[in-house]
Amino acid sequence: MTKLMIRVAAEISDDMISAFPQLHPTVQQPHTTLTGDIADQQELQGVLNWLASLGIDVLEVVTIPD
User: Fold this and answer.
1) Residues 57, 33, 26, 11: what is their CA dihedral angle, to the nearest 10 degrees?
2) Which are the contacts of 31, defined by CB distance < 8 A and separation ≥ 6?
3) Which residues fall within 8 angstroms of residue 36, CB to CB, at 6 or more apart?
């Protein structure tokens, strides 16, 4: 598992992110930071694809060191 921070250019509610319970949103208008553990590249790609399907721009993806 890798702990990641994904910052996006939108406000994402707890309800919207419910498909990914391992990610926890922190809203700081007009952005949201999602943090949590991602199992592998495939899971990360799933999150990024989901955000893209909603038209949400990803500003950065950062690995959080242990």
Assistant:
1) -10
2) 7, 8, 9, 10, 11, 59
3) 3, 4, 20, 22, 23, 24
**Contact present, 40 and 16 (Cβ < 8 Å):** no
pLDDT reported for residue 48: 96
DSSP state for residue 64 in the 8-state scheme: P
**What is residue 3's three-state secondary structure?**
strand
Q: How are beta strands 31-38 and 2-8 bridged, if at all?
A: antiparallel
**Residue 45 CB neighbours (<10 A):** 11
Enumerate residue ranges in the chain where pLDDT < 70. none
What pLDDT does residue 58 have? 97
